[in-house]
Amino acid sequence: MKTLTRRTFLHASALSTAAVLGGPSLAVHAATPPKARVVVVGGGYGGAIAAKYLRMSDPDIRVTLIEKDSAYVSCPLSNEVLGGERDLASLTFDYRGLTRRGIAVMQDTVIEIDPAQHVVKGAGGNRYNYDKLIVSPGVDYDWAAIEGMSEAVAERIPHAWKAGKQTQILRRQLEAMEDGGVFYIVAPPNPFRCPPGPYERAAQVAHYFSTHKSKSKIVILDAKDAFSKQGLFQAGWQEHYGDMIEWVSGAQGGIIEAIDPETRTLMGSFEEFRGDVINLIPHQKAGALAQTAGLANESGWCPVDQRTFESSIHKDIHVIGDACIAGAMPKSGYSANSQGKVCAAAVVAAINGDAPPAPSYVNTCYSIIAPEHGISVAGVYRLDDGRIVDIPGAGGVSPADADARTRALEQQFALDWFRNITSDMFT
């Protein structure tokens, strides 16, 4: 029998630990010093894709993905849960595909980033050393912007702007609402995650109401005087749901200043509104980690070098996705995906002593108004004098005069887009 020495015991322990975290490929990392250590925080549309493309681009880089949840629930298409067209299980993905690629996926909550020491600290006491750090913290909510609103109140007046429990709360409230009730959606000011989201949500809920609560009404109280794909949405609402959906702009009194959650009353700049169900989407800012780590500026968002997404505040930390200031790019899942790939390429280049490659950025956002009725907006962007700008004529919205076949194809494209992008993220 082979003698178990201290050296062989320590080596075997390292291999076992690596196998638990991410499979046999990480065991090689345990025995072979990596070229560099890159930590990615946040396993959504930006972080998951950045981790994958880092690993694909240079297998000699040790990539660790830290995510507080064991599975990811997609916000894109979660409005279909409210409309009764799908369930949350169809939007839920685990990280096994990334571990099979040799990425160490750690379920942990990051509580601190030490940019001087290049260390990320987890809630359980774990410390993650990095040479480069990519942070994709998403958005947080400015609860103080509307008097009477808070994180606790959101358990009764849900925002449903993070898919999962909040989506289920709002769905149950809509199911319990009596026919003839009024559902209020409070849309936030720009910038916020998924600019077309509140208006697609109105359409999806109207789809549910049209077959289950046909006497009910939906009112969107908006802090803005215009919104993404407005003409296409309003035409689609009218075509499928008649006068069920009403939009009140900021200038018409749609700005909400306070809420009384006990009576479900919204206090606007001109009048008060009492709803049977209220979906108040709060004002937004960069995610909590970005705030505590000092990555956000006075705007509440994170300034970055828009070529590489390296923080303008802390060296060797890159910020991607909804939290960053990314020029003309909207805050969307596809934008985060595109930024994750650009950032990964820049980080790999920096580690290997090369200049970052010329970036290219894209975004497409589909919205489903009704079964067989989809619309979209697309954008292609380039870097101009350090800022991400639109390429004129390279994007646009669905044609206003499209026929029924085109609308049905766009709805199918929306589903295909979701399958393709989540496959890219998690396999």
Automatic annotation (TrEMBL):
Record's keyword annotation contains Signal: yes
Gene3D superfamilies according to UniProt: FAD/NAD(P)-binding domain, Flavocytochrome c sulphide dehydrogenase, flavin-binding domain
GO molecular-function terms, A-Z: flavin adenine dinucleotide binding; oxidoreductase activity
Keyword Methyltransferase set for record: no
Residues in Flavocytochrome c sulphide dehydrogenase flavin-binding domain copies: 357-426
Domain (Sulfide dehydrogenase [flavocytochrome c] flavoprotein chain central): residue spans on this chain: 167-282
Signal peptide (UniProt feature, chain positions): 1-30
Domain of life: Bacteria
Domain (FAD/NAD(P)-binding): residue spans on this chain: 37-154
Alphabetical list of InterPro entries matching this protein: FAD/NAD-bd_sf, FAD/NAD-binding_dom, FAD/NAD-linked_Rdtase_dimer_sf, FCSD_central, FlavoCytC_S_DH_flav-bd, FlavoCytC_S_DH_flav-bd_sf, SQRD, TAT_signal
Transmembrane segments: none
UniProt keyword terms in alphabetical order: FAD, Flavoprotein, Signal
Family annotation (PANTHER family): FAD-DEPENDENT PYRIDINE NUCLEOTIDE-DISULPHIDE OXIDOREDUCTASE, PTHR43755
Name under which the protein is recorded: Flavocytochrome c sulfide dehydrogenase flavin-binding
Source organism (scientific name): Thiocapsa marina 5811
